[in-house]
Predict the structure.
Amino acid sequence: MVTLFKDRAPSGLVPIDKHFRSRWSKRGSHEGHSVWKSESEHDGTIHGELVAVHIESCVGCMKCVDACPTIVFTKWVSDLETEVVDPSGERDCIFCMVCELVCPTEAILVSRDGGSQETLDSLLRSE
Ligand code: SF4
Ligand code: SF4
């Protein structure tokens, strides 16, 4: 049975480890992006590279889905049967950082080192 946002308490969840890229290891892939685990493997799972989501800290509120201008996030039912988001379109990120701001549990970490200049240019041209 899928656990919905209204049944999960945001309190008590830990923010994503801001240093996970140096502390955690890539243990696989999903929908074209990396899947990370900590050394102890007790800290959960992080999906993504440019746009990373700590799956166990996501409460499935979908605020990032609504806020992202380039449709980076998609709704996904995790291996724990919880309704969360997956950064399946991370290559289209334009670094507006809105998703980090709206996430109530600080489950998202965006890398400032990459991303799609092409997508940003096309969005500006369409204004
Ligand atoms: S930084 Fe902006 S473009 Fe990138 S995933 Fe977050 S909301 Fe989307
Ligand atoms: S805003 Fe945060 S808690 Fe809400 S769906 Fe996105 S990653 Fe999950």
Remarks:
- The chain has one domain: 5-125.
- DSSP finds four helices and seven strands in the chain.
- The mean pLDDT is 86.
- The pocket of iron/sulfur cluster (ligand 2) is lined by residues 53, 58-64, 84-85, 102-105, 107-108 (CB under 6 Å).
